[in-house]
Amino acid sequence: MVLGKNKENIKAALSIATSTLLGIAIPTESNAQQSSVTDDWDIESAFLFYSEAERVSAIEGIISANKTFDNDEVLNLKFTIDALTGASANGAVAQPYAQTFTRPSGQGQYVISGEDTPLDDTFKDTRVQLNGQWTQAIAQDYILSSGAHFSKEYDYLSLGINSNLAVDFDRKNTTLSAGFSYFHDTFSPEGGIPVAFASMLIGDSNDPDWDEAFAKTRLTSSDTKTTTDLMLGLTQVINRRMLVQMNYSYSMVDGYLTDPFKIISVINEQGIAQDYIYEKRPTTRVKQSTFFQSMYHFEQNILDLSYRYMWDDWDITSHTIDSRLRIPVHLFSSNESYIQPHLRFYKQSAALFYQPYLLEQNESLNIDYASADYRIGQMVTLTLGVKYGMFLEKGNELSFRLEYYQQTPENAGFESIGVLNDLNIYPAVKAIIAQVSYSF
Amino acid sequence: MNKIIRLCFIFITSISVMGCASLGVEPWERDLLAKKEMALTSSPLDASLDDHIYFSKEASSGGKSFGGGGCGCN
C-alpha cells in the first residue's frame, strides 16, 4: 500500500513539474482533481549503463511524459541526462615504444605504453537534453507533429526544431509523411579548435613559452555546424498481421565537422611515428538513406525487421540490419511478460579521406583532408542482446535489457609498413549495454 | 555496384507493397495492429538510447527518424 501510494506521489510530482514547465494550470486543491490530472500522463523512464572495455563508460537517464488532450492532441516532453567518462582513441597508431601526447587543453601530457592503442583518458562530460513534441490533427486524416530540441554539454550546445506532416489514405491503411529537422550546434572544445594539420605540440607545459607556442596551434575557441534533414515516408498496412514502412532521408551537414581531439600519426618508412598532426574533414557532408521496416504478428510472437542503406558524399556507404523477436512468456507470475532477443548487424566502408596514418614523404603532398578516426573507417559492428519485460498492476511495465556490442574495424586496403606489421592498428572495441526501464 | 543495390532495394520493396492483390484491412480487423507492441517504434526510449550510442560510434545515423545533431560525442 505504501509503495503504491509513493508511486502515485512520484507520478503526481512529475506531472506537476512537467505542467509547471509548460505553464499549464493544475488544480491541486483537492486530491480528486489531482488524481484526474495525473491519470492523464503516461510516463516512461529508463536508465542505461554503457561500458567499453578499457575505454568510455556512460550512464544515461531519460524521463518521457505523454499527455493526451481532449481533442487527441498529444504532448510529449522528454528529459535526458547523461555522463561520460573514460578513454577515447586519439587517432594515432600504436608503436613498439611508449608515446607521449599533449592533452587537448594543452595542460599536461599523457604517456601510452608500447604496443598499446593511444587513448586519451581525460574525457569527462555531462549532457542535459530537453525535447518537446506536439502532435495534433489539423484536418481529417492530416496529422502535424512539431518539436524542439535543446541539449548542453560542457563544450557543446545543440538547438533544433522539427516538423512532420502525415496524411492517411485508404481507411488509414496507407500513410504518407514528409518532415524536416534543423539543428544548430556550437562546439567550444577544451583547448579551442586546433589548426588543421598543425603538429601537436609536445613538451613541458610548465615552460614559460609553452602557452604562446600552444596558442599557435589553435585557430579559434569555438565553431558551429548546421544539420538539415528531410524525410519522406510511406507506411502501409499489408494485412491483419503485417505493417511495413519505407523512408527516404536526405541530410545536409554544414560547418565544422572535424573532430578537434583527433590526430594522425605521420610515420617514416620503418613505420615509426615522426609527428602527430591534427585532422581535417570537409566542411560539408550530404548523406542519403533508404530505410525499410516490417512488423509481423505471428500467432504469438512479433517480428520487427529493418534494413537501412546509407550513402554520402564522403564515399561512406553502410548497411544496417536490425531485428527483434518479441516472445510472450509466463515466467514468474501470471501477469504477461515477454522475452525479446535482439540482433543488429552493421557494416560501413571508409570515408575517402580516411587514413590510419600518413607517410612522412607524402605529408608534403598537398592533401585536402585526412582523418584517422576509426569511426569513419571500414568497420563491421554486431549487437547481440535480450530484453525481458513484465507487466505489473494497472498496465505498468518493468523491463531489463542486456546487450553486447562489438566494433571490428578493418583494413580498407592500406599497406602495413615496417613495425606496424607487428602491431594491432585496427583494435576491436567491445561494450556492454545494460538498461532498466519502467513505465507508469 | 551501390547503385545496383539501391535500385534492387527500391524495386523489391515496391513490388512487395504494390504487388499484393489486396492491401490493408477493415477497421474491425485491426485487433493485432492496434497492439502497442505492433507500433513501428514500440519502445521509444530504447530507440532514443540506441540512436545516441550508434550516432556516437558509427558513421551513419537516422533513416528511421531524423538523424541530426545533438551531441559532440567522442
Q: In a few lines, what is going on in this structure?
A:
Chain A: It comes from Litorilituus lipolyticus. The complex is a heterodimer of chains A (440) and B (74). Chain A is mainly beta.
Biggest interface, CB < 8 A: A-B, 98 and 50 residues
How many structural units, i.e. domains of chain A? Answer: 2
Low-confidence spans of chain A: pLDDT under 50, at least 5 residues?
Answer: 1-5, 15-38
- Secondary structure class of chain B reads mainly alpha
Walk me through this protein's architecture.
- Chain A: It comes from Litorilituus lipolyticus.
- Chain A: Pfam families: DUF3570.
- The complex is a heterodimer of chains A (440) and B (74).
- Chain A has 2 domains: 1-39, no CATH class; 40-439, monomeric porin ompg (Porin).
- Chain A has 4 helices and 23 strands.
- Chain A has helices at 2-22, 31-38, 210-215, 360-363; strands at residues 41-52, 57-68, 74-89, 99-102, 109-112, 119-139, 142-152, 156-169, 174-187, 193-194, 218-220, 223-239, 242-255, 263-267, 273-278, 284-297, 302-312, 317-329, 337-348, 358-359, 379-391, 397-409, 429-439.
- A 16-stranded antiparallel barrel of chain A has the order 1-2-3-6-7-8-9-12-13-16-17-18-19-21-22-23. In chain A, strands 15-14-20 form a 3-stranded mixed beta sheet. Chain A has a two-stranded antiparallel ribbon with strand order 4-5.
- In chain A, helix 1 (2-22) crosses helix 2.
- The longest helix of chain A is centred in the N-terminal third of the chain and has 21 residues, at 2-22.
- Chain A is globular.
- Chain B is flat, with a radius of gyration of 17 Å.
- With 74 residues, chain B is mostly helical.
- The two termini of chain B are 32 Å apart.
- Chain B has helices at 2-18, 44-57.
- The model of chain B has no long low-confidence stretch (mean pLDDT 79).
- Chain B is built from 2 helices and no strands.
- Chain B has a domain at 35-59.
- The chains are: A mainly beta (440), B mainly alpha (74).
- Chains A and B meet through strand 1, strand 2, strand 3, strand 6 and strand 8 of A and helix 1 and helix 2 of B.
